[in-house]
Here is the input.
Amino acid sequence: MIRLFAILALLSLISGCASNPSNGPVHDPLEKINRSIFKFNDALDRTVLVPVAKGYRYVTPDFVEVGVRNFFSNLDDVNVIANDLLQGKFRQAGMDTGRFLYNSTAGVLGFIDFSTRAGLVKHNESFGQTLGVWGIGEGPFVMLPLLGPNNIRSSTGIVVESFTTDVPNLVIDDGGTRTAVTVVDLVSFRASLLSAGNLLNAAALDPYLLLRDFWVQSHRRATCDGKCNSRLNTARSGDELDELDALDELDELDELDALDELDELDALNELDELDELDELDELDELDELDELDELDELDELDELNKLD
Here is the structure.
């Protein structure tokens, strides 16, 4: 009941927030507090998460690293399907359901992403986006400890999802196991963003504003499925806009990297098939040699019979 009241309180809070236009300025009345939390998150990231993520990437074979990300992405599809239905995207819900079932079976619980190769692309839907589709305002921007950039609407979505569509949280009873799974997911996710982190840390301008504006723009674009002008209508310098564009390009490169990894796996599969064919050829050669040996033995017997 306490959890339910907390969720209802958050929903009541955001229901009174004015809806920001898709290209309006970021509403950041808590900037001073947000900057303090950003510094905490950044220090934690640099001193703990990044070293652990680099170590994870160093010791983990590429195909295992890809498989772990695929596994958690497959679990996330449960949340995506639920929000597809809540947003009235029934055709997309059907495709995402097929994607989840295909990867969960043929893909060995999602470790192999066969669905993407089959043309069932990954969608990203959250309850925060669903609330936006329903017309609920995004509210003030907030920087959450550990979770990073959000707004009041997306923060409410995180709370709701943790009790409704978060598969590990729902199916794992043991708290220690649940925490371990969460840590693996976090480290794996951070390892996939090492290049993005390097770009952000190398920014000569304000990294807080860069991260904030990039997240807000991406969240608005995702909420309206790219059908609205999500570019922030704020006074920005040319360098800051170039850095935001660079982050967008980095997302595209990450998608290409994922496809390259799939191509590498396909190449490995082809090599395995070639190896199997080579083994079959060797067996055929051995069979031919055996047949020749048998013929030689028969010839020898015939000669012996003639001598007799």
Observations:
- The longest helix spans residues 238-307.
- Residues 2-15+26-265 form one domain.
- Confidence is low (pLDDT under 50) at residues 253-274.
- The CA atoms of residues 4 and 160 lie 9 Å apart.
